[in-house]
Design a protein that fits this description.
mainly beta, Cathepsin D, subunit A, domain 1, 2 domains, about 50% strand, binds 2-acetamido-2-deoxy-beta-D-glucopyranose, aspartyl protease, hydrolase, PEPTIDASE_A1, Peptidase A1 domain-containing protein
Length: about 375
């Protein structure tokens, strides 16, 4: 009898364990548009809301997007999963014909969904070159076979043209924590965890090569080498950690600093003084608005980022983009300065390092991506 019970329990826990891991495949689109897109995000630092102007050079604008559905019957959308913000929005069927950025994408129609619940409050998200404006609605979100009922998201009536017209994704799902979200709304990750749809309140991001994926509820050991190196989240309301030191080769370029892990930023952004030191150490020269470095193969040193007691190097193939300047091939830095006291570790870093975002233990795990 006991044996049967044990077997049954083991069987049940297996069933639940497999139900509570949600895998969402991610696809990549490279954009070679010459124009530059400025995105910004609202972040809070010590209670003060700041507006970060994040530079996405579209030379290197790799969009990593996945699919979700909203409503019943399902309406499908491609979305960016953004660890740097907490709000979720989709273009609305009610956006005017005059808004081409909205018309270029799939639109959510609440009249077609039996599970739609009106909210009606307005929202505005400010971006560096414009904004997203609309109103809040509630519906069931479908993600990787799971259902998330009563999820509050934004229906966008206005999408700023320059930033959103040519992107592949329709909307954005914020994976940040509550403090950054609209007042009195529960952001995606918190709702997912509160409704006990996950084994653990954790998600993991793998961007290196196909099949790329984001895993909710755990991590995928086949996607990284060695052990995960865990460090505490440094400021609980953002997915951030502390960098102890940064250097190029053996030369130090920066000291202790906070860093935000941000899937919504293509590049790595560093504080001004660190950037200045980086440019000097790499003998970078300004040309057509880009910092160009000499890059005969293998000639550039690693940028070493010390996190906890472990070094996470970025090699030149991670931090250099090859572009045409005046029709000649040139190597430009995929690292940009930020007018703040912290780093932003965007996709360039996250491609190299598998990252576990653990809300249960308030920690971040890093390991070299396979
Ligand atoms: C780049 O994007 C801008 C703005 O969306 C668009 O007007 C332009 O035609 C695009 N250029 C190329 C080469 O695709
Ligand atoms: C939505 O996506 C699902 C799953 O990928 C697919 O089976 C379905 O056909 C899609 N529906 C529409 C209307 O595209
Ligand atoms: C939204 O869906 C309703 C119900 O199916 C339909 O009557 C309406 O035309 C749709 N709106 C648009 C703008 O497509
Ligand atoms: C929301 O915005 C619309 C127009 O964009 C306006 O007519 C309406 O009064 C606003 N509602 C609230 C509650 O502010």
């Amino acid at each position: 009898m006991l044996r049967v019970l044990c077997f049954l329990l083991a069987f049940l826990s297996l069933v639940f364990a497999t139900q509570k891991i949600l895998k969402v495949p991610l696809y990549v689109r490279r954009s070679f548009n010459e124009s530059e897109v400025f995105l910004a995000r609202s972040a809070t630092e010590g209670g003060e809301t700041l507006q970060l102007q994040l530079l996405l050079q579209t030379h290197n604008n790799m969009e990593y997007y996945g699919t979700i559905a909203m409503g019943n019957p399902r309406q499908n959308f491609t979305v960016i999963f953004d660890t740097g913000s907490s709000n979720t929005w989709l273009p609305s069927v009610n956006c005017p014909m005059s808004n081409s950025a909205c018309q270029n994408h799939r639109k959510y129609n609440s009249s077609r969904s039996s599970s739609y619940i009106p909210d009606g409050r307005n929202f505005t998200l400010r971006y560096g070159s414009g904004m997203v404006v609309g109103y809040l609605s509630k519906d069931t979100m479908h993600i990787a076979g799971a259902e998330l009922p009563h999820f509050t998201f934004g229906e966008s009536l206005f999408l700023q043209h320059f930033a959103f017209s040519s992107v592949k994704f329709d909307g954005l799902v914020g994976l940040g924590l509550g403090v950054l979200s609209w007042s009195n709304t529960t952001p995606f990750l918190e709702l997912l965890c509160a409704q006990r749809l996950l084994e653990k309140c954790v998600f993991s991001v793998y961007l290196r090569r196909d099949p790329r994926e984001i895993v909710f509820g755990g991590f995928d050991e086949s996607k990284f080498e060695g052990k995960l190196h865990y460090v505490p989240v440094s400021q609980w309301h953002t997915w951030s950690l502390q960098i102890s030191k940064s250097s190029v080769g053996t030369k130090q370029i920066g000291g202790k600093s906070n860093a935000i892990l941000d899937t919504g930023t293509s590049l790595v952004l560093v504080p001004q003084q660190t950037y200045h030191n980086l440019l000097n150490t790499l003998s970078a020269k300004l040309q057509n608005g880009y910092f160009v470095v000499a890059c005969k193969s293998g000639s550039l040193p690693n940028i070493n980022i010390l996190i906890g007691d472990k070094v996470f190097p970025l090699t030149s193939s991670d931090y250099i983009m090859e572009v045409l300047l005046d029709r000649k091939p040139a190597c430009v830095l995929a690292i940009a300065p930020i007018n703040r006291g912290f780093w932003v570790l965007g996709d360039i870093f996250l491609r190299r390092y598998y990252t576990v975002f653990d809300a249960t233990e308030k920690r971040i795990g890093l390991a070299k991506a396979k």
